[in-house]
Amino acid sequence: MRLLVTGMILLQCACWAAASEDNGSTTIVLGAADITSGHLCGNIIKKAYRRMGIDAQIKYLPAARSLALSSQGSLDGEVSRVFSVGERYKTLVRVPASYLSFHGKVFTLKPSVRVNKPLDLKNYSSGILNGIVYSEKLTQSYRRIYGNSASQLFNMLIADHLNMDLVILTEVTGRTAIAQEFPNAGIKMAKGNLMDLPVYHYLHKSKKALLPKIEAVLRDMLASGEIEAIKESFIINYTGGHEK
After folding, report:
1. What is the pTM of this model?
2. For the stretch 108-137, what's the b/e string if a residue is b when 16 or more beta carbons lie within 10 angstroms of its beta carbon?
3. What gap in Å lies between CA 29 and CA 63, rounded to an integer?
4. Any idea which architecture 2-100+200-239 has in CATH?
5. Distance from the CA of 216 to the CA of which of 141, 148, 225, 232 falls in 20 to 30 A?
6. 3: how many CB neighbours lie within 10 A of its CB?
C-alpha cells in the first residue's frame, strides 16, 4: 500500500511537471499549504503572475508535503513561506519582497493559559501544524502535538486530546476556522502576538529567471494597496461577517 501511495504521488508530480512544460513559460505550478493563509497567499500570487501573462496553478497540499515537493523540483516553488525556509532549503530561491505579514497567535479554551511571550510556551502543551516552520521553531524544546489542519487541531483542543492547552496558528487561519466551524465552541484568541511573520514567495532554482519580474510586480501591488485589499476581502468572504 505504501508503495502504491508513493507511486501515485510521483505520478501526480509528473503530470504537474508535464502541464508546466506543455505550456512553456505561460504556466507555473506552485505549492501552498492547504490552510486559510495559504489560500489567501495563493490568490495574491495568482494575480501577480497573471500580470506577467503567466497562469499560476496552485496545488494546495499538507504543508510538509508541499515543501518537500517544491524543494526537490517536482513543483516550481512555494506560494508563501517564512524567511528561514530559504536558509534551510538551498534549492528554493527567495523573492526578496515580503508581500504579506501574518501574526502568530495562541488560541485556547482554558482561562488559566497565559502566554505573553514565546518563552511562556514552556508551561503548556501546544498544538501546531505539521510542516509549518515558525510554530515548530517556537515549540522546539517544549511539549507539542502535531495536526494536519486547523480544524483537526481545534477538535483536539475541544476534546482535551493529550491534555492540549493551546493551538498556535496565524490570526487569519485561526479566525476563519473558528468563524466557519467552531463559532460556539468558546475558543479565544490571545490579544498579543507570539511573533510577526513576514512571508515570501519562493521559486525553485530552475525557475529563478522569473525572480526579477515577479519581485517588481509584488512590490507594485504592495505600493498600490492591492494586496491589502485582497486580504480584507478574503477575510470577509471566509468569515461571512459572523465572527464572535
Report:
1. 0.83
2. bbeeebebeeeeebeebbbbbbbbbbbbbe
3. 16
4. 3-Layer(aba) Sandwich (3.40)
5. 232
6. 7
